[in-house]
Amino acid sequence: MVLYDAERAMTAARAWWVLRWAGIGDVRVLDGGLDAWVKAGFETQDQAEKHEESDVILTPGQMPELDAEGALALASEGVLLDARIRPNYIGGPREGGDPKRGHIPGALSAPAPDNFTDEGPLTNGATLAEMYRGLGATGERPVGVYCGAGMSAAVTVLALASIGVEAAMYPGSWSQYVGDTGRPVTRGPFP
């Protein structure tokens, strides 16, 4: 199964994660999305093909995931990456409905847009590996990722998978984490 969207794979990456989580192992994301496909000269069609019904049996839980407590613990025991854009990581005035601003204590800022080139596809593997090595996300210690609501985190989990680093995702992400007002939050540019 090949998934794609317009360009930067946000929706395709989340679908990739959900399908892999549900036990469908052979799922790919078209790097660069539909835009790259068209630019490469490949054909498209505007009608869906008819397919036979599938006998696939879904087996939930096939991708590593975190809950709020697991994410908080991982920040001190492994590497927890915050895939939101840097201003959201740092905190500041409340915007977009977030009841709190900042990040999970100990999390490192790793904005999902940094996974892509300016043209849309994922950055090459060597550059991604260097970027994540600088954050300690090499796979030697457990790695986890969260974002605002699970979309950008899925992109980062996909990028890490492309360089051979398995990462757990916190599907509820920041939106769920700050739903409990008793959970600690750090503001500022440092973990």
Mind explaining what this structure looks like?
The protein is an alpha/beta fold and 191 residues long. It folds into 2 domains: 2-39, no CATH class; 68-177, Rhodanese-like domain (Oxidized Rhodanese, domain 1). It is 31% helix and 8% strand. It contains 7 helices and 6 strands; from the N terminus they run βαβααβαβαβαβα. The protein has helices spanning 10-21, 33-39, 68-77, 86-90, 125-133, 151-162, 173-177, and strands spanning 2-3, 28-29, 79-82, 108-109, 143-146, 168-169. The strands form 2 sheets. It has a 4-stranded parallel beta sheet with strand order 4-3-5-6, sandwiched between helices. Strand 5, helix 6 and strand 6 (168-169) form a beta-alpha-beta unit. Helix 1 crosses helix 6. The protein is globular and about 50 Å long. The mean pLDDT is 94. GO terms for molecular function: thiosulfate-cyanide sulfurtransferase activity. InterPro entries: Rhodanese-like_dom (IPR001763), Rhodanese-like_dom_sf (IPR036873), TST/MPST-like (IPR045078). Residues 2-46, 74-186 form the Rhodanese domain. This is Rhodanese domain-containing protein. Keywords: Repeat, Transferase.
User: What helical percentage do the residues reach?
Assistant: 25-40%
Number of strands: 6
Spatial gap, N to C terminus: 38 Å
What is the CATH class of the largest domain?
A: Alpha Beta
Over the alpha carbons, how many angstroms does the gyration radius reach?
Answer: 17 Å
**Biggest beta-sheet profile:** 4 strands, parallel
General form: globular
Structural class, judged by helices and strands? Answer: alpha/beta
Helix-strand topology string:
EHEHHEHEHEHEH
pLDDT below 50 for ≥5 consecutive residues: which ranges? none
How many separate helices?
Answer: 7
